[in-house]
Structure formats: structure tokens, C-alpha cells
Design a protein that fits this description.
Layout: E1 9-13, H1 18-29, E2 33-37, H2 41-53, E3 59-61, H3 69-83, E4 88-91, H4 106-138, E5 141-146, H5 159-179, E6 184-191, H6 214-224, E7 235-238
Parallel strand pairs: 1-2, 1-4, 2-3, 4-5, 5-6, 6-7
Helix pairs in contact: 1-2, 1-6, 3-4, 4-5
Amino acid sequence: MSEVSNTRAALVTGASRGIGAAIAERFAADGWDLTISARGREALENKAAELRERGAGRVEVVPADMTDADAITALGTAHADAFGRCDALIINAGMGSKGAVAEMPVKRFDRLYEVNVRAPYILLQSVLPTLRATAESVGAAKVIAVASITGVYPEPELSAYGATKAALISLCETFNLEESENGVSATTIAPGYVNTDMTDWLKDRIPADEMITAADVAVVAHSITQLSRFAVLPNVVLTRPGTNLHRA
């Protein structure tokens, strides 16, 4: 492990686009050191250059496939080796898929679970020693996991996706019971439809400019890092206006 930096450091998965990119940009504007991860190196390198221009400190690029347990573990190790601390672990990488219960292939459900639940579990295990050490040194460390409102309220044809996000929320709640007294706590952010390429399939029904923005999610994620070790925020639900308050 490298000498511990005096600059706050975050590890952000799924950081090359969408919500993950917006979160990384918000942290960069505050001068954080960053490890950014996604599957493709070229997109990550391009994003890293943008983040440096936005004010980030050091930016490390670590490609990782969220279906590869060894790669996920190595990601946590690479961040620790680079910065020696982790003030915020942003678990954002995930996949979506829709389909009615009667028709959803089990193989697709298994893939959703692998990426949306198993990968975060492995990453938590990998980064936890660094989170604990950071909390002991500076007072607090935060885990921020991007879930979905479908993990809180049901949505037709999103049963499998919602089930994985409900599992992620439960995982983080139990994590808090085990780790919050060590100064490490987790918050899930559960937004309704966010204007990213993952929601392109329904923009003929819901205009993009009427969706939650990725920047909205990033503001919430950054604000969580300002909380002390004595403030544990289990879950934040972001909804769209009007009759959509309990809908994606």
C-alpha cells in the first residue's frame, strides 16, 4: 500500500458514462483523488482526462468486468495501493433488463444478480479494510451504492431488476449494523428514471427533460460524504414529480 494521501479519495465503478461519470465529475470538482472503473479502458482514459481538467487530483484508471470476481478484488487492491485511503466507495456499475415474471429467462435474472448484487458484495469485502483504516484515521468513510426506486416500490416488467436492487439495499442496511460503529456506513440512492442511455427505451413515453438528471444523483452522493461518522443515512429515494412519487 502506498503512503497515505492527504487528499480525500474515492473509488467509482461504472464511471465512464451516465450516473457514475456524473458522480466522478462532482467529486473531481471538489479536488478528490479518484480511481475510476468500467469495462472499457479507452472510455475510462478519456473520462480521466476530463476529470483532471475539472479539478481532480490524481486519477487512476482500472478497467474491471463486474462478472469477474478476481478483477473486482484486484480493483479494491489497486485503489488501496494507489492512495492508501478510501473516503468513499461508490458502487454504481450495474445492468438493467426488463421482462414480465412469466417470460423473464432465468439466465438473464442470474446475470442481473451477478452484476447488481454479487459484484458489490465482493467489492465491499475487498475495500472494507481500507475503509476501516480511513475511518480510524480521519473519522469516517462512506459507501454509496446506486440502487433504484424499483427496489423500494414495484414496477411492472422490472421484477428481476427491482429484486436485485432490493437485495442491494438490504445488503447495505446489514452492512451498517456490522460496520457503522467503526465509522464506516453505507447509503443506497434509489432514484426513479434517470436521463441516461439506460433509459433510452422509454423516452418516447417519458421525455428526457422530465427525468431525474445524473447530476441530481451526483449531488446526493457528494453530500453524503459531508456527513460525520455519527450520521448514518440508510437509503435516499429520488422520485419524479406528480403522480410518480411511488413509481419509477
